[in-house]
Specification:
By secondary structure, the chain is of the alpha+beta class. The chain has helices spanning 37-42, 47-50, 53-60, 128-144, 182-190, 194-208, 210-213, 218-240, 290-309, 313-324, 326-342, 352-365, 370-380, 388-391, 397-412, 418-428, 436-449, 453-462, and strands at residues 19-21, 31-35, 71-73, 77-79, 82-84, 92-99, 105-111, 126-127, 150-162, 166-176, 242-243, 265-266. It is built from 18 helices and twelve strands. Bound molecules: adenosine monophosphate and magnesium ion (MG). Residues 250-251, 260 line the site of magnesium ion.
Length: 492
């Protein structure tokens, strides 16, 4: 069977300086360990063909499909606040773009497919553990309804990669609405290449913000659009307890998708200062810092766009500042609306923000599990008889009881039936998130025993995060103290 990728590439048609043409490096003995069949179908690809030896060769980088124009994209970026003028795809190769069933253009990229001119000192490879982590977490995010890159496939290479120890190598096939980053703009801006910035901005408008093209000031509209999507995205992260871990400007997508899953994690017990990443020693990318960092990253984007906003620099700065000023309002609106939904409010009243903040404070003080508190609160919406499950998540159950009295008074004023409230709450408060200890179990089984059954099981649970799955209810549970994973690693 030969079915081809229906590539329609646009990025590879941009000027030479935007990328380097480079083919993936073949590997020793590729083996497909996971294929995302529904996603393949959505992309117009035949899953059975991808599952064939020929398909696996493509997913491993052994063979370049017809119509692909393999490139490594150039970008720069602020890493932990320090500017690096040239990063680029050091271990990822974009095969090309296809149009999915919704009419959306999608990049198909191999990650871990060998060195590129942007590899610097890296080997261009990825280890199996981080590939599985990205696969699991990105697909979980998609099932939660949060904008994200997707994972089409994972292949083990049959080769070891050297990290602290020798680890099995793997290649992830990543799908994104594009891989353009804030750092992509910075790459051209840092070179004083205003024409490059303009070319890129025009490409991004056509691709991601088509309504900006007909705006009175398209580049202002572009900046507004990126800010709106990032504000919404980071609010969504906070509402599920997600910590990206490496919110560098090169890991901030222009399309507003979550991208570059490294030492990311979902928190168990609620703690606004939570940091998992071993390299984030200062807590720059801590849970509650994420909105502030997103704005910082967007400010770097605005700086790149200044020459396109107005001829006079002081005018451009003033206009950029006005647009950046909208971030806080947009983020707060999305975050507060999400919190109201999480505690089952159908209406908005003065005092709601304080009510929900008091719950969060009590959760933090009492090490209450973030996900389970809100999930079980949905049951408590039926009446105080159902308080037990949520109550026992608090070190001091009285902390919940005091809050619940005020919450009941507030929801009691709304006309909706308790069952309607419970249904609404269950639709926004997931039962299943990719908990760290479960991800670690999957990685351990895969890396040490070549056993991918736990991966399949976890992916099944996470594909329906808002449904109770009684047979798999242990996946909803918080880790026991001895199961807790408190640190994650990027593994690059
Ligand atoms: P990250 O922190 O994973 O977002 O990566 C930052 C930069 O390092 C990007 O330019 C990556 O392409 C590059 N990089 C990360 N790991 C490797 C590797 N193993 N080989 C080559 N480049 C890498
Ligand atoms: Mg990155």
């Amino acid at each position: 069977m030969t079915v081809h990728f229906p590539f329609q590439n646009t990025y590879a048609a941009l000027p030479d300086g935007f990328f380097a043409r480079v083919a993936p490096t073949p590997v020793a003995s590729p083996r497909l360990i996971k294929l995302n069949r529904p996603l393949a179908q959505h992309l117009g690809l035949d899953p059975d063909w991808l599952d064939s030896p020929e398909g696996t060769e493509i997913l491993a980088g052994q063979r370049i499909p017809d119509g692909a124009e393999p490139i490594a994209m150039a970008y720069a970026g602020h890493q932990f606040g320090h500017f690096v003028p040239q990063l680029g795809d050091g271990r990822a190769i974009l095969l090309g773009e296809v149009i999915d069933a919704d009419g959306v253009r999608r990049d198909i990229q191999l990650k871990g497919s060998g060195p590129t001119p942007f590899s610097r000192r890296g080997d261009g490879r990825a280890a199996l553990g981080p590939v599985l982590r990205e696969y699991i977490v990105s697909e979980a995010m998609a099932a939660l309804g949060i904008p994200t890159t997707r994972s089409l496939a994972a292949v083990v290479t049959g080769e070891n990669v050297m990290r602290e120890t020798a680890l099995p190598g793997a290649v992830l096939t990543r799908v994104a609405s594009s891989h353009i980053r804030v750092g992509t703009f910075q790459y051209f801006a840092a070179r004083g290449d205003t024409e490059g910035v303009r070319r890129l901005a025009d490409h991004v408008i056509a691709r991601h913000y088509p309504q900006a093209a007909s705006a009175m000031r398209p580049y202002h509209a572009l900046l507004e659009g990126v800010i709106a999507r990032q504000a919404e995205l980071v609010a969504r992260w906070l509402l599920v307890g997600f910590i990206h871990g490496v919110m560098n400007t090169d890991n901030t997508s222009i399309s507003g998708e979550t991208i570059d899953y490294g030492p990311c994690a979902f928190m168990d017990a609620y703690d606004p200062a939570m940091v998992f990443s071993s390299i984030d020693e200062q807590g720059r990318y801590a849970y509650a810092n994420q909105p502030r960092i997103a704005l910082w990253n967007l400010t770097r984007l605005a700086e790149c766009l200044l020459p396109l906003l107005a001829d006079a620099q002081d005018k451009a700065i003033e206009q950029a500042q006005a647009i950046l000023g909208e971030f806080a309002e947009k983020f707060t609106a999305a975050y507060q609306a999400g919190l109201r939904d999480k505690i089952g409010l159908f209406t908005t009243r003065d005092g709601d923000e304080a009510l929900v903040q008091d719950l969060l404070d009590a959760m933090a003080k009492n090490q209450a599990d973030f996900t389970l508190t809100f999930r079980h609160l949905g049951e408590a919406a039926l009446g105080a008889d159902n308080d037990h499950e949520v109550q026992q998540l608090f070190a001091d159950p009285a902390a919940y009881d005091e809050w619940a009295v005020r919450w009941r008074a507030r929801i009691g004023d709304e006309p909706q039936a308790a069952t309607a409230r419970r249904t609404a709450m269950r639709a926004v408060n997931p039962a299943f998130i990719p908990r760290n200890h479960r991800i670690e179990e999957v990685i351990q089984a895969a890396v040490t025993r070549d056993d991918f059954a736990p991966l399949e099981k976890l992916l099944t649970v996470l594909s329906r995060p808002y449904e109770d799955q009684p047979a798999l209810s242990e996946y909803a549970e918080a880790p026991e103290p001895h199961q807790r994973v408190l640190q994650t690693f990027c593994g690059t």
